[in-house]
Amino acid sequence: MKNFLLSVLISGCAASPSAQVLDDSAKADSLVMVTDSIRLIFAGDVMGHGMQIKGAWRDGGDSCYNYFPVFTHIKEYISSADIAVANLEVTLAGEPYTGYPRFSTHQSLADALSDAGFDILMTANNHILDRGKQGLDRTVDVLDSIGMLYTGVFKDSTSRQIDYPLMVERNNFRLAFLNYTYGTNGISVERPNVVNYIDTIQMAVDLAKAHHLQADYIVTVLHWGEEYKNKENETQRRLAAFLARNGCNLIVGMHPHVVQPFEMMSGCNGDSVPVIYSLGNFISNQRDRYRDGGITFEVCLTKTNDTASLKSYGYEPYWVYRFPLNKVSVFRLIPINNFLRQPEQYPIGEENKKKMMQFYDDTKALLPGLPYGNFYKARLVFAQ
Fold it and tell me: Which helix or strand (DSSP H or E) is residue 122 part of?
């Protein structure tokens, strides 16, 4: 469990990992109620465009690619989660390192994501086969070598049978993570590799397996929708409703590279199922309006007497700051709410501030009524 005390302070989920309420009137020392909590953060598309590759280069050879500075300003926030998840929309296929349209990024990106606090990477997306079977296999091998959890693609069907859904136990919660993509840019998966494509028959089987494995909470992350569209389409809405009816507890969307709306759906037991249709880009070189930033979506769950429930949810907007350094462009993620509270920490200039605030205002308009998270508010209070 990472930084539990900070997580509790900012989320208000619980007073301790296992808050105990005793019968004071009877002076009993037996446990009456145990309440556990867990806080999850989801980030969007992790891209590896050519300019990002050039910006990560350091003279001295292959070992000098360095993506760690990209996440400097949000590392504390990501690390505050009990579980942090992102969509890895590149392969780690080795040299040559290339951007669009066939992505292969140096392993330093995965190392930097791990260092920033991410626990799970989603790998079912339209670029996972950019380097074919070799690219998929090497991506899996790299993630295994650094101890990063992942799901969505597998070297073979045996691995899928054993490891899917991805089951994660933390803070007395048993969580199931599922991941699917609409396609792989027309590239066919080579046997024995397996890519999870969106298929409602298979998804229903997977959801049933998650319930059979006694998951307290089931999360489905989908690579879907239309690129650069700020509104979800009918296919997304129908698929989300299908998942909610079949026992999914949270639906998170990737792929459009822009933020899309949020809504609550009714689940199979009448419970509320949050659906965020797209988180937008997490890190990329896309600079057009709506594409130059994204959001993280976070949920706080509580579990009392073996019953898990959704306590709160919210989002944080961030912007991708690109600036020249040593004759190349480098990238930093800027948490906008923290910028607004402590602008002196981010000397980005007026023109960049104007673009960032346009993204901020656009995002608020797309997500009316969805609250911000408490992390930066809490930091400000404690700093005072």
Answer: strand 120-122
Nearest by Cα to 294 from 303, 302, 283, 285: 283
Tell me the HSE value of 364 on the side-chain side, using a 13 A CA sphere. 8
Give the Cα separation of 36 and 301 in Å (integer).
8
CA 190 to chain centre: 27
Query: Comparing C-alpha atoms, which of 108, 133, 81, 140 is closest to residue 301?
Result: 81
The pairing of strands 281-283 and 272-279 is unpaired
Contact between 63 and 299 under an 8 Å Cβ cutoff? The reply is no
pLDDT at 4: 33
Please give the structure tokens belonging to residue 130.
């950019």
> And the tokens for 264?
């609550």
Classify burial at 211, counting beta carbons within 10 Å of its beta carbon; exposed 0-12, middle 13-18, buried 19 or more: middle
Helices 200-212 and 234-245 cross at an angle (nearest 10°) of 30
The span from the CA of 294 to the CA of 291, in Å, is: 7
Spell 48-72 as b/e; 16+ CB within 10 A means b.
bbebbbebbbeeeeeeebbbeebbe
Q: Are strands 328-335 and 166-170 parallel, antiparallel or unpaired?
A: unpaired
Is residue 289 within 8 Å of residue 300, measured between CB atoms? no
**Longest CA pairwise span in the chain (Å):** 72
- CA 179 vs CA 105, 195, 198, 224, 252: distances in Å: 21, 10, 9, 11, 10
What pLDDT, on a 0 to 100 scale, did the predictor assign at position 172? 94
Amino acid at 59: D
Residue 235 has φ and ψ, to the nearest 5°, of -60, -45
Phi-psi region of 280 (alpha: psi -120 to 50; beta: other; left: phi over 0): left
117 by Cβ neighbours in 10 Å (0-12 / 13-18 / 19+) ranks as buried
What is the rounded CA–CA span in Å between residue 81 and residue 85? 10
* Chain center to CA of 12: 21
pLDDT of residue 230: 97
Q: Which residues of the chain have pLDDT under 70?
A: 1-34, 59-63, 378-384
Q: What is the reported pLDDT for 9? A: 31
CA end-to-end span of the chain: 27
Tell me whether strands 120-122 and 307-325 are parallel, antiparallel or unpaired.
unpaired
